[in-house]
Write a structure and sequence with these properties.
The chain is an all-alpha fold. It is built from 13 helices and 2 strands, in the order ββααααααααααααα.
Amino acid sequence: MTSPAVDPAPDAPETAPTAPTTPRPVTEKPSTGVPARRITGAVWAALGIVYVVWGSTYLGIRIVVETLPPFLSGGARFVTAGLLLAAIVAWRQGPAALKVTRRELASAALVGLLLILGGNGLVVLAETSIPSGLAALLVAAVPVWVVLLRTASGDRPGPAAFGGVLLGFAGLAVLTVPGLSGDVKIGGVLLVLVAALLWSLGSVSSARLPMPANPFTASVYEMLAGGLAALTLGLVRGEHHGLDLGAVSGRSWTALAYLVVFGSLVAFTAYAWLLQTAPVSLAATYAYVNPVVAVLLGALVLNEALTWPILLGGAIVVGGVCLIVSTERRG
């Protein structure tokens, strides 16, 4: 995907400044007399980061939970990344860049809970019982949920988008076969489906709530809110009981560090920026590249089996998402 797409959101900034103006709700059709704007090179660069890096995070998560508890490790990941990003923002733009209103703070915290505690946290928990590649393919349905949420909020995606939704659900049905047949735990499959829905809700909400004008500042509060909530849930679940940090493997520590720096600090921030500068449906397209990367890495590094439900269901889901994306690009 090297050619630029048409941006159907007239209120999104045409360029990619470090601190864009206050975002407005994303609409899918330009107002009468307002020409469609083109997606900039900075948007495609951010998409590329999200596409590739997040594809590798499923492998990283699977390695982390080999010897670390899910919510405590996930919470530590995002709290650490949030504090690092806050320090970077304060250093590069001054401490004033971190100031937000109460409404903006509440909005960022809500989005953080949906994206990190709900979306990411449930995926981490699910990967204690299902392969990383299968988790990624189930998450690939995010654009499908986004279309349905947009429809429920009053937007009117075209017929092709709804065709993509039907394909996506058909693919999800095939992907649940390993759980129904007992090859993997059905509970893990259901957790990822709920996670994808919550992530989609967070993505759509971020385009409609009064978020901080600076997307990096928004990322700070989203990661801190979601990370602290995940730590709290981990403690409530008793994940700290019997936890011996000395028994944690070196590869789990390495994977956690990778997730902090690349999965959270770099890719999550790029995604948060995309949500404020590009149509939410375009930002969600990372979901059809991530699973390809994740499935390949899972097979190569962890020897995860490539069964027919995974290959067929994954192909159907990706096909449905591509149909949604092509509709979005035609605007």
